[in-house]
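Limitations

Structures in this collection are predictions, not experimental determinations, and the ligand pose is part of the prediction. Treat each record accordingly. The example that follows, with zinc ion as the small molecule, is included so readers can see exactly what is and is not provided: the inputs are given verbatim, and the output is the predicted complex.
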Amino acid sequence: MNRLFTLLPPDSVSMVSDLVSSFDNLTISIVSPRKRKLGDYCKQLSGTHRITLNENLPPYAMLIVLVHELAHLKTRLIHGKNVTSHGKEWKAIYSNMLKEFIYKNIFPQNIAQDVMLHAQKPCACFPKTLDKLRQE
Ligand SMILES: [Zn+2]
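Predicted complex:
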């Protein structure tokens, strides 16, 4: 987990730490970059939850992708398996989780508005308006 904290925006670390520790049996792994995805969530046969994140994500992108995956975990805990992965249940949860970070002014002013627009109308993909965050 410590590796993750070094890859996030410094201001977000204590919030992320609280959020992550609110989930039981969760492992977060930083992995070699994959072309087709930035991160993912799965519940393993053992019952543990696993999130992977591409190691080359810049800090604010890392945070957004992490929140995206944590929203999958929370959706799974609340709604079980019988909802679509990016359906309205996930959207509502993701939106609320992301807004917490916006309200705490974790995102710099020049991107906060785009992050807010994304939080208000969540999509499965990394938002086009925030693509600049992905360029290192
Ligand atoms: Zn997803």
